[in-house]
């Protein structure tokens, strides 16, 4: 697996260091499996500003994992593992519920509306009950659908176009906004935008 991860036309000799690293990776996986029930996930919010008026208009929810064993862990160090294991679906639902609830509380306290942007993983994108999850999160928080943006990456659009269109239409039917995140980093072109 190490050779495979390094790319084609290579080999890897097993060393005793790999045993320790494999053990650490296994501990990390086990800790991630328990992170949700231990309430170790935290949301940070990046402010969204209107450049013309310099006014705060909303927030983007950013997930962090504050692990008992490993300390504060950034998404780049655990999201791929969460996606591989399927844990990203319940984690993503938690992010959606919590961010809607927390921003809803802030709106009521400040007597004003904010937009909220939440990233959607490719696995969540294909989740059968995603529209219901969105609707429940909005209903419990008292927020309007039009004030929620779901950010999807271009990898979501690289799937079968018929299935992708169906999922996009189901999400649009909830009334939330769809945003293409990290456009142009991978394979996307302007034709994807016009197609979808």
As a whole number of angstroms, the C-alpha radius of gyration is: 19 Å
Kindly report the average pLDDT value: 85
Order of helices and strands: HHEEEHHEHHEHHEH
Distance between the termini: 36 Å
- Portion of residues in beta strands equals 15-25%
Please state the structural category.
alpha/beta
Largest sheet: 6 strands, mixed
Q: How many helices?
A: 9
Number of strands: 6
Low-confidence stretches: none
Describe this structure in words.
The chain has 196 residues and is α/β, with parallel strands linked by helices. The chain is 47% helix and 21% strand. The chain has helices at 2-6, 16-35, 79-85, 88-110, 122-125, 130-141, 154-157, 161-172, 190-195; strands at residues 41-50, 55-67, 71-73, 115-119, 148-153, 177-181. Strands 1, 2, 3, 4, 5 and 6 form a 6-stranded mixed beta sheet that branches. Strand 1 (41-50) and strand 2 (55-67) form a beta hairpin. 19% of the residues are buried. The model has no long low-confidence stretch (mean pLDDT 85).
How do the strands and helices of this protein lay out in sequence?
Layout: H1 2-6, H2 16-35, E1 41-50, E2 55-67, E3 71-73, H3 79-85, H4 88-110, E4 115-119, H5 122-125, H6 130-141, E5 148-153, H7 154-157, H8 161-172, E6 177-181, H9 190-195
Parallel strand pairs: 2-4, 4-5, 5-6
Antiparallel strand pairs: 1-2, 2-3
Helix pairs in contact: 4-6
Short description:
The protein has 196 residues and is of the alpha/beta class. It is built from 9 helices and 6 strands. Helix 4 (88-110) packs parallel to helix 6 (130-141).
């Amino acid at each position: 697996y190490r050779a495979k991860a390094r790319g084609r036309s290579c080999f890897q000799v097993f060393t005793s260091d790999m045993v320790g690293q494999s053990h650490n990776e296994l501990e990390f996986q086990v800790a991630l499996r328990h992170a949700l029930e231990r309430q170790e996930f935290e949301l940070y919010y990046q402010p969204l500003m209107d450049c013309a008026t310099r006014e705060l208009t909303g927030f983007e929810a950013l997930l962090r994992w504050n692990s008992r064993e490993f300390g504060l862990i950034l998404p780049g160090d655990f999201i791929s593992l969460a996606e591989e294991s399927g844990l990203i679906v319940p984690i993503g639902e938690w992010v959606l519920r919590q961010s809607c609830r927390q921003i809803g509380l802030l709106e009521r306290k400040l007597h004003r509306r904010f937009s909220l942007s939440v990233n959607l993983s490719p696995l969540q994108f294909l989740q059968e009950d995603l529209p219901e999850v969105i609707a429940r999160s909005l209903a419990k928080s008292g927020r309007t659908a039009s004030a929620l943006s779901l950010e999807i990456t271009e990898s979501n659009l690289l799937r079968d176009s018929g299935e992708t269109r169906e999922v996009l239409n189901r999400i649009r039917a909830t009334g939330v906004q769809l945003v293409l995140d990290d456009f142009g980093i991978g394979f996307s072109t302007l034709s994807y935008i016009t197609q979808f």
